[in-house]
Amino acid sequence: MSEMNDYNARCTRFLHAQPHMQKLGIRLIKAEKNAATLVLPVQSQLISKVLDTYLHGGVLTTLVDAASSVSTLCALERFELCPTLDLRIDHMRTPVQSQPLYVSAECYRVTRSVLFTRASVYQESPSRPVAYAIATFMRPGDGNTDSAFRAMIEGGNDAATA
Amino acid sequence: MQQLLDLVKQAHVSGDYQPLVDLIPYARVLGVQCECYGEEVIFRLPARPDNIGNPTIPAIHGGVIASFMELTALFQLTLQLPQPGLAKIIDFSLDYMRAGLDRDTFAICHISRQGRRVGNCSVLAWQERKSKPIAQARAHFLLDTDKES
């Protein structure tokens, strides 16, 4: 689990396994040790013709939760399905609906029981953040991650292709 | 914006808030529904395959639960504002307490303070019973959005 490509493959398989990520077309841009960047593409199902003030109404929250969760995959030696304990988002400016929404998340601390992440959401440039978020995740403990699901996410020779 | 104001007015008269909810594209994607019981408004997120995040349990995506609760607060505030307008979120903080299973989820928003500029909300989400919440959230919204860019 030292190749950057392994992180990419693992995160991509994780996103593919989640119906809601498929529904929104959320995909991985980049994965590296402890960090991942995702994108929410512009799509007609999220465009409002009536309101142009508050555009993504809640979908930013889903994107942030997803990215924070994906960043934990890049911080653990083996895949563990970690439930979110706490998520906090500060909104700095309103995103526009005509541009994709990017989020870069970093898992900056791993303990025996808890993972800590931070994320920033942006559109045209990372230096103009739309929102910041911090989250914590619980590690499930040995034997509490579904072994078939783990094998599927980690890939490997005998795992079914996602 | 005029269409929003008209919809809020109509909703208050008819008691049917669904057209207002359908105005937000993501609320439609999630399938959020709104039910009024007297003055109490309860929001419902019906179980649907597209909202699953964890296929092993299966459980609703954590972000879906969070967004649903954020939208609940937004709609509740919009309904209560003396001058209808869409409030703008400042921050959102969520505790996940139990896995959201693949079944209907309900949420209710309590507005603890509604000032001139800021509204303080707390939201509770549950599935089988209210006394066993799956998540609780706190949010602040900016109310006089016309004056801010």
UniProtKB/TrEMBL annotation, chain A:
GO cellular component: cytosol
Protein name (database record): PaaI family thioesterase
Keywords: Hydrolase
Every Thioesterase domain range: 54-126
Native source species: Marinobacterium marinum
CDD domains per record: PaaI_thioesterase
Pfam families linked to this entry: 4HBT
Molecular function GO terms recorded: 1,4-dihydroxy-2-naphthoyl-CoA thioesterase activity
InterPro entries tied to this protein: HotDog_dom_sf, PAAI_dom, Thioestr_dom
Automatic annotation (TrEMBL), chain B:
A matching Pfam family: 4HBT
InterPro entries on file: HotDog_dom_sf, Thioestr_dom
Entry-linked Gene3D superfamilies: Hotdog Thioesterase (3.10.129.10)
SUPFAM superfamilies: Thioesterase/thiol ester dehydrase-isomerase
All residue ranges annotated as the Thioesterase domain in the record: 60-130
GO molecular function: thiolester hydrolase activity
Protein name: PaaI family thioesterase
Organism encoding this protein: Marinobacterium marinum
Upper lineage: Bacteria, Pseudomonadati, Pseudomonadota, Gammaproteobacteria, Oceanospirillales
